[in-house]
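hey can u check if this looks right to u? its 162 residues, i copy pasted from the old doc so theres a chance i mangled smth
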Amino acid sequence: MPITFNLRHLEEDSLQLVGEMPPAELELETMDELIKATHPLVYDLEVQTLDNAILVRGRVELNLDCECVRCLKPFSFPIELPEWACHLPMEGDDKVPVVNDCVDLTPHIREDIVLAFPQHPLCKPDCSGLAKTQNKPENGPGAAAKPESSSSAWSALDKLKL
């Protein structure tokens, strides 16, 4: 269920919106393979009217399940927007869409959540990446001799006559 409010409820006083939103409602599942939203979005918002506009302020939180780009280990990444605010004009070219006297806040919250996503999710800032594995020694017994032509990735290009 999207995060909506009725404009008629704002005629007398401000409105408090508190709750959780399932991650499927945010439609974030196709944004990145390494980042998944599986936990609900938690919000605590206050909605009030201003001169020909609506001001929404409050707290928005979402925990993401991520995979480290260096070591591929899963980890949790919390997105916390403790002082989230949104100004919604009711007139002009940028006016917010109103359907049956209701305004949907979901697209505005989704935009700020996506902007808070980690660009390169790391389990910790000094992650060293995948552990190096040692197979057979290069020049030891049983090691195959490498042909000189395949010793470089550029060797095939060096043979081109242009």
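Strands lie at 4-6, 15-21, 35-36, 41-50, 53-67, 74-89, 102-104.
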